[in-house]
Amino acid sequence: MQRIPVVLDVDTGVDDACALLLAALHPGLDLRAVTCVGGNAPLADVVRNTLLVLETAGRTDVPVGVGASRPLLEQPVDARHVHGSDGMADLGMPAPTLEPDARIAVDLLRDTVLAAAEAGEPVTLVPLAPMTNIALLARVHPEAFARIGRIFFMGGGANVSNATAAAEFNVFHDPEAAAVVLDACAAHEVPVAMYGLDVFYDPKVTDADVEALRAVDTPVARLAADLISFHHRRFANDGATIGDAGAVAMLLSPGAVRTERRPVRVELSGTWTRGRTIVDTRDWSGDMAHDPHGVSPAMVEVALEIDGPRIARLWLDTVAGEVR
Ligand code: RIB
Ligand code: CA
Q1: Residues facing residue 126 across a β-bridge
Q2: Which residue among 15, 129, 212, 255 sits deepest, i.e. has the most Cβ atoms within 10 Å of its Cβ?
Q3: Cα of 178 to ligand 1 centre, how many Å?
Q4: Looking at residue 237, what is its pLDDT?
Q5: Which of 250, 266, 226 is nearest to 315 (CA)?
Q6: Closest ligand to 79 CA?
Q7: Residue nearest ligand 1's atom 6 by CA
Q8: What is the CATH number of the domain that holds 196?
Q9: 214 CA → ligand 2 middle, Å
Q10: What is the SS3 string spanning 229-274?
């Protein structure tokens, strides 16, 4: 199997942890590095959680870079009401023995992207968090940004929102960063796909799936079961989304997701709409003379429909150790 070189940027985060397990363990992916940013939890918690997940997966070879603790302009907010007070389900895990890489996130990203590009196997960058680190990469190391193979980010939504009535959490948290990244993708011709809220909630894991994972009884399966059952308890349901892990699964199973190539902009002002991703669904091939804004230069593959059960099964089989 041809392995896809990937780098994840995370704010771990219960569902970032699910995504890390998939990226660390699936034989179709070659996880080259992980970078951390403040988001779902404060940066120190994100780093600890990320190291714990990689250690549990036996992937102590993967370098972890520490990145931005806050957005470019906004004050940091977090989502510990969703992810637990430690950002990762309050499982009481011991401190990790693994240490972060000596390089800060933008330097680790630069080195990883350039090394892969020079070896003729450009990386797929998967931001699963506010895109502060990625925007900084575009500004600090534009030559490296230009050599990213493609970007698959979790964020935004064409028709669905969560942080506000108009915006999704990752983009709302750092709208300027998301705008910088989309502009840089257009300027450097880096292909970009958006795994947003239109599909995010569909790949679900049930109570019965969690029980099956518990029966596997490996450290990875136990962690995976604990992460999902935390959300079952917190939201009193029996079907929790694998969230960010779906964006990683989309790399492995592109046929399970229907996308449309659409111009996308990020709303940076607006009284009620800051942080909204404006997905242009018009037939913009016509006369644009009367649109003062024109068409966004950032053309994005926007995920609009997903085969949720297929994506959830891919994740379950991987964390159960059935995919090697
Ligand atoms: O908007 C969904 C949130 O949950 C994002 O932070 C996403 O990355 C996930 O962690
Ligand atoms: Ca996340």
Answers
A1: 8
A2: 129
A3: 14
A4: 75
A5: 250
A6: 1
A7: 170
A8: 3.90.245.10
A9: 24
A10: HHHHHHCCCCEEECCCHHHHHHHHCHHHEEEEEEEEEECCCCCCCC
Pocket of ligand 1 (CB under 6 A): 13, 15-16, 39-40, 128-129, 154, 162, 168-170, 243-244
- For residue 80, give the ligand nearest its CA: 1
**CA-based nearest residue to 279, from 294, 291, 262:** 262
Closest CA to 319 of 190, 187, 215, 239: 215
For residue 40, which atom of ligand 1 is closest to its CA? 6
Report the distance separating Cα 68 and Cα 150, nearest Å. Answer: 22
Domain that holds residue 198: 4-319
Instruction: Output the CA torsion 294→298→301→302 (10° steps).
Output: -60
pLDDT in tens, 191-235: 999 999 999 999 999 999 999 999 999 999 999 999 998 877 777
Per-residue model confidence as pLDDT tens digits over 236-264: 676 789 999 999 999 999 999 999 999 99
For the segment 289-313, what is each residue's pLDDT rounded down to a tens digit?
Answer: 788 888 888 999 999 999 999 999 9
Q: Is residue 224 part of a domain?
A: yes
Phi, psi dihedrals of residue 318, rounded to the nearest 5° = -70, -50
| Structural domains in the chain (count) | 1
Q: Is residue 324 a part of any domain in this protein?
A: no
Would you state the pLDDT for residue 291? Answer: 84
DSSP state of 104: B
Residue 168 CA: which ligand 1 atom is closest?
A: 1
Supply the residue whose CA is at minimum distance from atom 1 of ligand 1.
Answer: 169
CA of 77 to the centre of ligand 2 (A): 13
The side-by-side arrangement of strands in the sheet containing 124-127 is 64-66, 29-36, 4-10, 124-127, 150-154, 192-195, 299-306, 257-266, 277-279
Pairing type for strands 29-36 and 64-66 reads: parallel
> How open is the CA angle 11-54-44, to the nearest 5 degrees?
40
- Please tell me the distance from the alpha carbon of residue 155 to that of residue 193, in angstroms, as a whole number: 10
Hey, which of 45, 153, 200 would you mutate to test ligand 1's pocket, going by the most ligand atoms within 8 Å of its Cβ?
200
